[in-house]
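user: can you give me the structure for this one chain? tokens are fine.
assistant: on it. calling the predictor now.
[tool input]
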Amino acid sequence: MKKPGGDEIVTIDLNSGDYKIFRDAFRKFIDKEILPCYQQWEEEGLVPREAWLKCGSQGFLCPWVEEQYGGSGTDFGYSVIIAEELARAGTHVMFPLHSDIVVPYINSFGTPEQKQKWLPGCVSGEIIAAVAMTEPDAGSDLSALKTVAEKDGDHYVLNGAKTFISGGEHCDLVIVACKTDPKANPPHRGISLIVVESGAPGFQKGRRLHKMGLKSQDTVELFFENCRVPAANLLGKEGAGFICLMQKLQQERLVASISAQALAEKMLKEAMDYTNGRTIFGKPVSRFQHNTFKLVEMATEIELGRVFLERLIEDHMEGNNVVKRVSMAKYWITEMANRVAYQCLQLYGGYGYMEEYPICRDYRDVRVQNIFAGATEVMKSIIAKELGL
């Protein structure tokens, strides 16, 4: 198959060769190390450090990191596999957030000294990383950030607060988006990224937030009160933080789309198994025309999402700018996954409302997919701008 310009389209098969070996190995890891403990982690609201260390020791954290920093030097395809398999198992552990959303900032914008200091621990699981953008009064509008970092000799002094920080309780370092020049015009030119390490004076981790879903993910508030951080912890250039964030949002939203797609596939498969086996009025639930049509509609939407997503993954791995289409995927696939969750739960009837059935948890967990990493409304605004509207 060739593109319109005549260039051959490279198709990446993530279910063959070394990819398949890796996928099989990670599935076994999930079965052995995650599934038996996941309900307990959900109840405790935290994934223990032991799980992170086991994941790192087997090469499942940041596999793309270069070998000189402890990684395997793989491509993004291996990250796709990890995100897919976690979602298909219904286990929303924050390995992809750490590996494919936070750590890439260090890899792309860090100095050789910063990489050597932090990347090996991120790969091994000894360092858990988080990113802090959202504030109580600033979510999607990053230019409205109020957290400020003032230069004081060879240190920055941070003051401000962050909220909804996933992994914030466990994190050993957090990349903080803050203003080093509050008077910059336009405001986004004053934003910088500073790495704050756990234990820094003036850095406090607040209460664990109680969420609708994704309960095993520790989500907290963070506070910086005259927090002193070495100037050497500046990531990238001062005032370039907004540009750095924009460069990495393409992959963040792609990862979110991958997770939502895989979860939709999981929910449909389980709903089909249930409705084929559950009998009412003398025949399987799936054989009633209304229910059959619902299953067909979901299967069609899920297939459309899969085809679109696979091409996006290939383009992203080829280094192409796919901001518009990634925004489309983030908007459409996450909304589709929510529709699938609603319809699947309805097919279970009263049993779908019971916690012992996975659809109950999946229904709660999927709801945030079209909110985090850029809400649907933000994605539509980006698409509109890309379309020249």
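assistant: here you go. The domain at 130-239 is CATH 2.40.110.10 (Butyryl-CoA Dehydrogenase, subunit A; domain 2). The radius of gyration is 22 Å.
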